[in-house]
Amino acid sequence: NRAAALPLPPPPPPSRGDAGDQVHAFYDAIDSDKNGSVSKLELIDAVYRDPQIADFVLRASGGAAGSPQSDEQRFDAVDAIFDSMAGGRARINFDDFAAYFEDLQSEKAWVVQELRHMYQLMDADGNGSISKLELLSAAQRDAAVARFLVPGLDCRQIMRDEDAFDAISALFDAIACGKRRIEYADFERFYRRTVNHAPRCNARPGHLPPDRSGKRVLVLGPGFGSDVNTQQAHAIQNAGFDVQWCWDLPDITTPLPAGSRAAAERAHYIGASIAAAQPDVVVAASSGGAYLVELWAHGLWHGPTVMINAHPSLQRLPANAPVVLAHGANDELYTRARAELEAIMATGSANKCFLYYTGNSGEIAPGAHTRLGDRHQMHSLTLHDCLPRLVDAALAGASAGEACGGPEGHFMRSWRGRLSDQRLQAERWLGYTTERLRTRWTSPGHRGTADRRLFEVVSGSEEFVNVATMFRACPREPSDYELGPPSAWERAATIVRVERVENGPQEAGSARPYAEALRRAFQVQGLTFEPGVHTCWAWHGTCAGSAVLDSIVSDPVAGFQPLTTGFRKPPLWG
Fold it and tell me: Is 178 left (phi over 0), alpha (psi -120 to 50) or beta?
């Protein structure tokens, strides 16, 4: 029966509480030595010895324990699943395990559904695996499969068309990683890495507004009061949080001897005031930062915290506490160098702390900058929902797995929320990796090695429409560039043509090695590299001169040189 052999969709998820308990029970059963983390060998052993674990792990990931799989197929499937959870690390924790299955059921459900459908179309004999010949035949007989695998390439005569044959063969090799046949787990792993933008973390996609209504934010009034900094006060009041203000605090400007009874009594009084509010996160600014330092020194608060302006008494951060510190380069009251602030952040726990620092740009003339960092009032916090997002980031540092990057990773993802839905959809279709972009190349064999480097995208094609949509899309807030009203910009933005750069030596010898080095740099920090968060789409001006454009289009190594952006000497990159 062919239907029984196809990768089945997961069963409807139980209620949130039941699902969480089920995932926890399976994780505990897999963690055989009960040390709190799971190795690849532990996961493989659990799948082989326990049919219920096997059914849960394999079915949720696109297969089923009862499917006719060989030992090798099952081993490869579990191996791929662990790699997806671990993001390059040797062991996973419960957060990684739970996030993987939550991903499959929620944020990426639409992607997984599309991948399963495509895989079923390719698996002609329904045996659960695909050979290279099957993949070639599927691309030849089914136009939808061909468009998915190699957009823009005609595969109807694939056995007579060397370019189409080479492109599909190279794609199979990339998915199979040396194997003769590919399983669904191989297929999903490849496309989850190259197509998806959504992070594999306990976080909402960046373009969805977070639910803040159930989060209690306690703002320490001294130094932050609504009469001191009205814009920041309004930003946090209007963000949707349950905001409470704490005013009844003792004077902290008079120093008390460290370790004295008076100092302890004062600290405990402050701690009692905080505890009475039962906050999820504490926010302080300016002189209010001294209260946070006092609480940390006496071990009276270890929860999520946002400190605006690094108070002079701050010398180190508490262990295992999610802390966001915001400071400007031009703070006229608390003058602190960036290196000093980074040294303070290094005293906190890894992937728990985030320094939001606004610095000056390089000088374009003595004393002249194109961008100035914040002063003490930190005006940037009132723009782009910035201060509320920093509060979200501190809260995420207490709940997200380490692989998600803590507060900093959460804040980076939230920047995507400043883009319009239309742009995000267009970006998602185009992809966020060089591998995905290369599947649309039309040069011989998708190799980009011929003398010709520019290939016109057919006007009106899906690729053309998505590039045009992304170019015309306006951000959610008014742009810093004076483009006029969105309707006027859309009318004025006439696109004459779109050309795709296909420079194989540059992609293989420069862009891809850099991307892989960046990916490894994240992995050694225990973080997950996320296309669409750690890679992004940007636009480059055409008035920089022919040398710049020639480098981007034709140079086999240099390509685009972002590190020279903003230099005073021509050409100006950017």
Answer: left
What is the biggest distance separating any 2 CA atoms in the chain, rounded to whole angstroms? 88
DSSP string, 85-99: HHTT-SEE-HHHHHH
Q: Could you tell me which of 36, 73, 37, 35 has the C-alpha nearest to residue 54?
A: 73
Both tokens assigned to 207: 């373009």
Judge whether residue 572 has pLDDT over 50. Answer: no
Sign of CA dihedral 471, 472, 478, 481: positive
Positive or negative: CA dihedral 473, 239, 296, 221? positive
SS3 267: helix
Q: SS3 for 454?
A: strand
Contact 397, 406 (CB under 8 A): yes
Instruction: For residues 69 and 67, give the distance between their C-alpha atoms in angstroms, rounded to a whole number.
Output: 6
pLDDT confidence tier of residue 355, bands split at 50, 70 and 90: very high
Burial status of residue 374 (CB atoms within 10 A of its CB: 0-12, 13-18, 19 or more): buried
d(CA 564, CA 574): 9
Q: What angle do CA 454, 456, 462 make, to 5 degrees?
A: 130
Structure tokens given for 502 = 């296909």
Helix axes 109-122 and 94-105, enclosed angle (nearest 10): 70
Question: How many Å apart are CA 156 and CA 483, to the nearest integer?
Answer: 45
Please give the residue that has the higher pLDDT: either 398 or 394: 394
How buried is 555 (Cβ within 10 angstroms: 0-12 exposed, 13-18 middle, 19+ buried)? middle
User: What contacts 114, CB < 8 A, 6 or more positions away?
Assistant: none
Terminal CA-CA length for the chain? 58
CA contacts within 13 A on the Cβ side of 546:
0
Residue type, 195: V
What stretches of 242-367 show up as alpha helix (H) in DSSP?
A: 261-277, 289-297, 338-345
Cα torsion 48, 52, 53, 54: sign: positive
Specify the residue for token string 């739970």: 98
Compute CA distances 347 → 72, 248, 314, whole Å. Answer: 46, 31, 11
Collapsed DSSP state (helix, strand, coil) of residue 323: strand
How many helices and strands (H and E) does the chain possess? Answer: 24, 14
User: Poorest-confidence range of 37-51, 106-120, 152-166, 431-445?
Assistant: 106-120
Distance CA 502, CA 317 (A): 49
**How far, in Å, CA of 279 to CA of 115, rounded?**
43
Q: Say what the pTM is.
A: 0.63
Distance CA 336, CA 309 (A): 10
What distance in Å separates the CA atoms of residue 232 and residue 240, rounded to the nearest whole number?
14
- Name the helix (H) or strand (E) containing 513: helix 512-524
